[in-house]
């Protein structure tokens, strides 16, 4: 017997209370609803992946608090904490590598990042932190969920230091696949990035595009890219709990 929408909603609400992660419940009663659901999910997923791939092929990279193009979905993927690795190709560097750790606090979460940018003749140290807070829950009037993000980071190179304090709004929606157990979160994140260095300052703008994919119960794959003043591409892997 097919479960009713109310029973599915009750189950999602119970999971949400345990994980503090809002889940989307979609009515897929009947063939038209099911086809519409999978069309939406595949279209948004392919669109986000295509846009991010285009950014990777066509643009050099700079970006948020640590100078790498890593952006944030409006949802946290973990109930307690996560640990992961981000790889990118920032402008002026052959490769960027960062380890990150994030932890939950009510509806908010905090993240810390540390890594290095390989500049060929040497490596630049990067440090950063991020705060995210859910502000918007989707409704009939507005179809997306949203979160405020605020960061602070620094890049240390050649005796100089560049500080960034990005402020952004992440907007997206989760699509769950009950058949595979996977979930997909395509999102966009406009960001204002005040940047400071010795004797200089600027205000940059970037539009981040991303896709978070839950591959397994404790494993996430995340891709992101951006256009605007700061452009680039990044891939992250996370172990979530």
Description:
The chain is of the alpha+beta class. The chain has one domain (5-240): Lipocalin (Beta Barrel), CATH 2.40.128. It has 2 helices and 12 strands; from the N terminus they run H-H-E-E-E-E-E-E-E-E-E-E-E-E. The chain has helices spanning 5-19, 30-58, and strands at residues 81-88, 95-105, 108-118, 123-136, 145-157, 160-164, 167-172, 175-176, 183-197, 200-216, 219-228, 232-240. Strands 1, 2, 3, 4, 5, 6, 7, 8, 9, 10, 11 and 12 form a 12-stranded antiparallel sheet that branches. A hairpin with an 8-residue loop joins strand 4 and strand 5 (145-157).
Key terms:
Lipocalin; twelve-stranded antiparallel beta sheet
Question: How are the SSEs placed, and which strands pair?
Answer:
Layout: H1 5-19, H2 30-58, E1 81-88, E2 95-105, E3 108-118, E4 123-136, E5 145-157, E6 160-164, E7 167-172, E8 175-176, E9 183-197, E10 200-216, E11 219-228, E12 232-240
Antiparallel strand pairs: 1-2, 1-12, 2-3, 3-4, 4-5, 5-6, 5-7, 6-9, 7-9, 8-9, 9-10, 10-11, 11-12
